[in-house]
Amino acid sequence: MENKVALVTGANKGIGYAIAKGLCKLFTGTVYLTARNEELGKAAVVRIIAEVAKPACKELRFHQLDISDKDSVIRAKEYLMKEHGRIDILINNAGIAFKNNSTVPFGEQAFETMKVNYWGTKQVCEQFFPLLSPHARVVIVASQLGLLKKISNEDLKKRLESDDLKMEDLNSIVNHFVESAKNNVHTDFGYPNSAYAMSKIAVIAMTKILQREVVKDSREDIVVNACCPGYVDTDMTSHKGTLTPDEGAETPLYLALAVENSISGGGMYYLKKQVDWRTGEFLKGD
Length: 286
What we know:
The protein has a domain at 5-97 and 118-144 and 197-275: Rossmann fold (3-Layer(aba) Sandwich). The chain is globular and about 55 Å long. It is 42% helix and 15% strand. By secondary structure, the chain is an alpha/beta fold. It has 9 helices and 8 strands. It has an 8-stranded mixed sheet with strand order 3-2-1-4-5-6-7-8, sandwiched between helices. The chain has helices spanning 14-26, 38-51, 70-83, 106-128, 154-161, 167-182, 195-215, 245-248, 250-256; strands at residues 5-8, 30-35, 59-64, 87-92, 132-141, 223-228, 268-270, 273-275.
């Protein structure tokens, strides 16, 4: 019997930890909990094994993965290729956010946030997509802050949501945001005054581009979706969130575990329902 493989990035705590724990309960293959810090990641694996009394998964393993470090991403890809030759679920959860009261110059915040949240997620997808099996599910954990209503320039909105947007076009937009942020003129171009928000806008746009690409692939029914987990009580929200990490994991798990040919891709989801990327309103019939 084939041994399916799931991998979660940034999973030693918070929503990523809850997603990995949920996969242990619900997914019958091998689950990889990944994190930058090996000690914290291995400790998280031990905690999950202790917490989940009756796991469905075959095995929970740790693998070191820093999504912003290309060598780390390639090492993880090569390990998975040699060990399994496949990925069935890829959940891109790893990300950073500067606190609202951060004294780090905004240009630096923009650079560092995009380095991890956009470029890191992008290189994980570039390296791991060749390993995706037919019917694989890819989830990019985004945010309601990534809705297009955060952008004040209508032409920029139209560029981002265009079906003709290519990855190189999106790269240019991200680079322009970072450069304009360094000069503190980003809002003049309609960008939000939040590096985190712009990074999530970018990864939702990336989700749509990736889905358009996999539709042309010979592998059947590979689906890429983005989602907002909700306002979750984590270190990132300074524990102000109203949802538990387990509640925040529900929509990513819903998308990751969607059965064959049951769900379309390129969407943005919240509370297990698809939302309009411009407004955040639930789409009719969803």
